Amino acid sequence: MKRLEKLVSIKDLPEAPVSNVPSLNQKTGTWRVFRPIVDKEKCIKCSICWRCCPDISIEIDNEGFPIINYDYCKGCGICAHECPKTAISMDREGK
Amino acid sequence: MKRAGIPTEEFIYSGHTACPGCGALLVARYLLKVLGKNTIMNIPACCFAAIPGTFPDTCLGIPLLYNAFETTAATASGVEAALKIKGKKEKINVVGFAGDGGTADIGIQALSGAIERGHEIIYVCYDNEAYMNTGMQTSSLTPKGATTTTNPLGKKGGWRTRNKKNMMDIVAAHDIPYAATVNPSYPMDFVKKIEKAKNTKGTSYIHAYSVCPTGWRYQPELGLELGRLATETGLFPLYEFENGRYIINYKKKTKEVLEYYKLQGRFRHLSEDFIKEVQEYIDKEWQKLLVKEECSNR
C-alpha cells in the first residue's frame, strides 16, 4: 500500500482550486411547479420579461418575441406578474 | 447595446442554484451588465457563495475570489493594490459583493478601513435583511417587527424590537466619494448609479435592496412588486451621497407601510398599533432625509 507523502512546507500544497466550467450542465428546470407560456398575440415586444428574469432563461428572438428556455426556468412567475399586457400565463406542470 | 433600458450582454449563466425569484441574482446580473468583463469579484460567506454551484461549476463569466466572512473589503483592497503594482493599463473594476451580515455586522471594520484608505473599489451590499444563507438569522439590518429563526414568534412577542441600522449614514460619515442605494425594481436608475460608481475615483458603496422569497415568506412572483412598494412607502428610499451632497432620486412617497407589511409572512403577527408605530418612525426618517438633502445642497 502506498503511504501518504509527508507535507513539509506550503509549497507541497496544491494551488487554489479553480472553477472554470459554466453552470449550464445543471438543468434547474426540474425545480419548476408552474410553467410560463407566452401568448404571442398579446405580446407587445417590450422585453420586460427578459429584463426581470432571475434565471436568465428568457431570450429574445429576431422578431422581438420572448422565448422561454424550459431547461433552466425555475417557474418563479416574476415574468407573468410584471408583463404589462398579461401575455404570460402560469400553467401547472404535469397537467 | 441596450434593450429595455439595460445592456444586453450577460455575465451570469443559467443553471445557478439560487432560489426561484431570488433578488440577489438580479442585483448581480444588472451590476455585471454595467461593469463588463474587466471585473474581479470578491465574495464572503453569503448566499452568493452557494449560488454559483458546486465545484467545478460556476455561473459567473468573470473571475471570482472567495474570502473569509469578515474580509471582503480587505481582500478587494488587496486585489486593487496588487493590480496597481502589476501596472495594468486597462481599467479593472474590483468589486466586493457581500450580504447584509457580511457588511453591517461582521465585515464592517474591513469596510471602514478600505474606505478610510481610499482604495478604488466598488463595495456592493445586497441587503436581504437577515443571514439568509444559513437559515434566516437576525442581522443588524433586519427591520423592526420581523420574525427570524433567532427571533422566533412566541406567546409574548419574540420578534425583532430594534430598528434597522442605517448603513448609508455610516459610510457617509467616512466622507466617501460616492454612495448610493439601488433597487432592481428600478433598473434604469440602477444602471445609472453603477455607471457613476464605475467612474468614481476612490471607494464607492452601493446598498442594494434584494428580496428573499424564502426568508420573507411571500409568493416569489411578487418580488419586483415588493421592491417598488419598499421605495414608494419610504422604507427603502432611493438616494445618492456624492461628494458630501445628498440627492434623492425618487421623491414620491405615496403608499403606507401596511401595504408592504401585509404581503409578507414574516410580519403577519403584527398588530395595527405596531405598524402605526413603524409608520411614524419611517415618516420621521423620511423628513430627516429631506432635511439632509436641503442642507447639503445649500
TrEMBL record, chain A:
Domain of life assignment: Archaea
Q: Does the keyword Transmembrane apply?
A: no
Q: Which InterPro entries match?
A: 4Fe4S_Fe-S-bd, 4Fe4S_Fe_S_CS, PorD_KorD
- Pfam families given in the database record: Fer4_21
Question: Which GO molecular function entries does the Swiss-Prot or TrEMBL record give?
Answer: 4 iron, 4 sulfur cluster binding; metal ion binding; oxidoreductase activity, acting on the aldehyde or oxo group of donors, iron-sulfur protein as acceptor
Query: Does Cell membrane count among this protein's keywords?
Result: no
Q: Where is the 4Fe-4S ferredoxin-type domain?
A: 34-63, 64-93
Q: Which cofactors are reported in the record for this sequence? A: [4Fe-4S] cluster
Spell out the PROSITE patterns in the cross-references: 4FE4S_FER_1 (PS00198), 4FE4S_FER_2 (PS51379)
Swiss-Prot/TrEMBL keywords: 4Fe-4S, Electron transport, Iron, Iron-sulfur, Metal-binding, Repeat, Transport
Subunit structure and binding partners:
Heterotetramer of one alpha, one beta, one delta and one gamma chain.
Protein known as: F420H2 dehydrogenase Fpo, FpoI subunit
Species, as recorded? Candidatus Methanofastidiosum methylothiophilum
Q: What is the lineage of its organism?
A: Archaea, Methanobacteriati, Methanobacteriota, Stenosarchaea group, Candidatus Methanofastidiosia
Automatic annotation (TrEMBL), chain B:
What range does the record give for the signal peptide? none
GO MF annotation list:
3-methyl-2-oxobutanoate dehydrogenase (ferredoxin) activity; thiamine pyrophosphate binding
| InterPro entries, alphabetized | PorB-like, THDP-binding, TPP_enzyme_TPP-bd
Q: Which UniProt keywords apply?
A: Oxidoreductase
Give the UniProt record's GO annotations in the biological process aspect: organic acid metabolic process; sulfur compound biosynthetic process
Query: Pfam families, alphabetically?
Result: TPP_enzyme_C
What EC designation does it have?
1.2.7.7
Q: EC class of this enzyme?
A: oxidoreductase
Gene3D superfamilies associated with the record: 3.40.50.970
- Superkingdom: Archaea
- Please list the residue ranges annotated as the Thiamine pyrophosphate enzyme TPP-binding domain: 66-207
Subunit structure of this chain's protein: Heterotetramer of one alpha, one beta, one delta and one gamma chain.
Name assigned to this protein: Ketoisovalerate oxidoreductase subunit VorB
